[in-house]
Amino acid sequence: MLRLVFKQRCLTLNSYLSMKKVLNVLALAAFLFAATPICAQHATAEAEVWQEMEAFHTIMSQTWHPVEEGNYAPIRERSAELAEVAKAWNKSKIPASYAAQKDIKKNLKELAEDAEELNKEIAKGISDEEIKEELHELHELFHTIVGLCKE
Length: 151
Prior knowledge:
Elements: H1 2-47, H2 51-68, H3 73-91, H4 101-124, H5 128-149
Helix pairs in contact: 2-3, 2-5, 3-4, 4-5
């Protein structure tokens, strides 16, 4: 008799634990199902590409990194192009997913003005050291804008 009661209690306990596992699995599945749309929305926002920003980044990287190594030819040859893509980026529509719209716009305006000024100064024949200093400031401003886009 004692053995039968013990077996029944063990079966009841095992059934309870099995049921608890099933409920945990169902709860996890429900959570994952509910979280999927949130993750999909986040991935869409992350994947949003601002073409003008990418165009500026391409020219900036192809001119700034050589300057870091002492090669000023790329920026001397492409300063007008850098100014043009900065101007186009400034005029472009900021993606709606970026929260810091005002700050981005203000910094983009400054970036476009500074890139145009650098282009004019290079045309006048400024020194390599002056180019490096001004391009460094432009590069830092670019990173400020990129940071604002991630807020």
